[in-house]
Amino acid sequence: MFKPxxxxxxxxxxxxxxxxxxxxxxxAAAPVSAKPxxxxxxxxxxxxxxxxxxxxxxxxxxxxxxxxAVSLLLAVAVTAVALxxxxxxxxxxxxxxxxxxxxx
Length: 104
Fold this sequence. Notes:
Layout: H1 48-103
């Protein structure tokens, strides 16, 4: 009753991926551009807008990393101040208890 029922192994048909045939072109050779290929391989056209977008993205990334670094340093500073204040308070309490025991 509680045994699982598995499908028989002959029902599985593996998917095969076949490359699409490349159509033969009878035209002349492709013209060779004089511009060297960029790192992006021609996906992005070189234009002032592209350069501006890349610069803006870089500035945004630097600002994001700087804000994370500043917040981490602020957290460390707040923790250090809290520990130093609690250490001073504990020192005063211990001294007060010692004086209290000496008097009795």
